[in-house]
Amino acid sequence: MAKNKIQHYNFSSVDLLIYMWEKRWILITVSLLAAVVSVFMSFQITPKFRSSVVMFPTTNAPVSKSLLSPNYSGRQTVYGFGEEEQAEQLLQILNSEPVKERIIRKYDLMKHYDIDPASKYPYTRLYEEYNSNISFRMTQYMSVMIEVMDKDPQMAANIANDIAALIDTVYNNMLKERANEAYNLVEKSYQEAEQNVNSIQDSLEALGKLGINNYETQAERFNEAYANALKDGKMDGARRIQEKMKVLSKYGGTYLSLVNRLNFETERLADLRQRYKEAQVEMDQKLAHKFIVDSAYKAEKKAYPKKSIIVIISTLSAFLLTLILLIINDSIRERLERRKEE
Description:
Order of helices and strands: HHHEHHHHHEEHHHEH
Largest sheet: 4 strands, antiparallel
Strand content: 5-15%
Radius of gyration: 43 Å
Shape: rod-shaped
Number of strands: 4
Structural class: alpha+beta
């Protein structure tokens, strides 16, 4: 009778329910078996615990200018929160090799993940385990979350906190390498400017010993004194003044040139001194590059596996697969019987 009924099904919702009712014992049996097996298998899975750290990135505002420059008018300061660009940079740092290598080495993850170093492709398996257990993502609030899954809840928390701490180390090492190069360049220019100023001052001091201290003022006074001496008939005094005027005339141009150079080099030295201080700050700075919102702590409840979800999914999958196979089986049998009858 069931063989004849199958040919009248068009599998609308009502027909499907009728068909499922007729096959209820098969479907129930398979579903129960699947539930029992999934419960058993879920107990064989090693439980894992989740710990997470939530942080916000800081801005990329230059520390030296923000703190030292009185004329700094940048939109961002070192005290502000970063934006999407800084969050993406933070993610790049978290996914970098220096962070991975330090965590792997510190916690001996090769051994912790039960990977035999002598096996085939041990490091490939190690990095696959690392990436499956440790993840980073940006939240909708532009914060960055570090999530660590591990069979040891305390280790999960420790790894998450250590990764967060490593951000500043890796970030500052990268910045320091570039800051050192900039510092060396500025230091060289600063020292050259300082030597130029000292050299010009030495030359002006030598001219001062010749009696040249202020060309414009001296020239005016010598001319006036010379005229007065001639007027009063003081020829000896006029000759002495004339000798001084010759010296002033001989070295006056040099004096003016040195004074102009000294003014230029002094301004340049002041600018380089500011840059030099800023370069020192950039080289020595060890400011944090993130604001920790939530630190990781030892989880009390496992996060994986969710036995109830495993059982529900496995049971539903077995139920649907059995139903599909039954429909296919009955359809094939019906077609074969039709051919025999023809």
